[in-house]
Specification:
The chain contains 10 helices and 4 strands, in the order E-E-E-H-E-H-H-H-H-H-H-H-H-H. The protein is α+β, with helices and mostly antiparallel strands and 213 residues long. Strand 2 and strand 3 form a beta hairpin.
Length: 213
């Protein structure tokens, strides 16, 4: 059984989609790029209709994935989970991932570097905390090690604590150390790093040197 294309009209609310009329009745909507395959009077079999709808599903999911990526880069696992949540079948999801990869929008190594650099700039964390975050995003050990391995934890801890230390400067030493140590510990820094940085910041805040101990 075949049905004839009798009208192709842009949707009023979304000009990127087209309403398809078959045998004089509305049948379904398609992305404009998919609808461009059709012409007036063309006959479509059930299999051809199913194929067009499958292409439309991929196109719609691809556009949603691009929007999802517009907020920040994503790991491959994050994108796969996102597409799974859209209830795509495995083949359609694979096609979307392939298109994204072809545009170099799926690169776990690059994502790991972005994540670490972003954390270092706005909210420094320990290597341990960063490794945990990246593993949760589905990255391989190799990509995690490459992004995290060269970090200087003392430098990261100092940058993380510097502004907080300024706000605590009026406190006595014991309270200052306790609060700042807790702040750094919550960001995953180990005891030795925390002790060095808290001592350094106390001295800087109060003009002390090691000889003053």
């Amino acid at each position: 059984m075949t049905r004839k294309v009798t009208a192709l009209t842009p949707q009023q609310r979304n000009k990127e989609r087209v309403n398809i009329f078959l045998d004089g009745k509305f049948a379904f909507g398609l992305a404009a790029i998919v609808a461009a395959r059709l012409k007036m009077g063309q006959s479509l079999s059930d299999d051809q209709i199913a194929h067009l709808q499958s292409l439309d599903e991929v196109e719609e999911a691809y556009n949603k994935a691009i929007s999802y990526l517009s907020y920040r880069p994503r790991s491959k696992a994050e994108l796969e989970r996102y597409l799974k949540g859209k209830k795509l079948n495995g083949e359609s999801a694979a096609q979307v991932m392939e298109r994204l990869a072809g545009l170099q929008l799926v690169d776990d190594g690059e994502f790991a570097r972005y994540w670490v650099e972003n954390r270092e700039q706005f909210a420094p964390r320990s290597k341990y905390a960063l490794r945990s975050e990246l593993r949760q995003k589905g990255l391989s050990s190799g990509d995690v090690d490459a992004a995290v391995g060269a970090l200087d934890e003392d430098a990261s801890a100092y940058e993380a604590a510097r502004k907080r230390a300024a706000r605590l400067s009026a406190l006595d030493r014991e309270t200052f150390q306790r609060r700042l140590s807790g702040f750094l510990a919550r960001r995953g820094f180990g005891y030795a790093v925390v002790k060095r940085i808290v001592t350094r910041l106390w001295r800087e805040q109060h003009g002390e040197t090691a000889d003053d101990e």
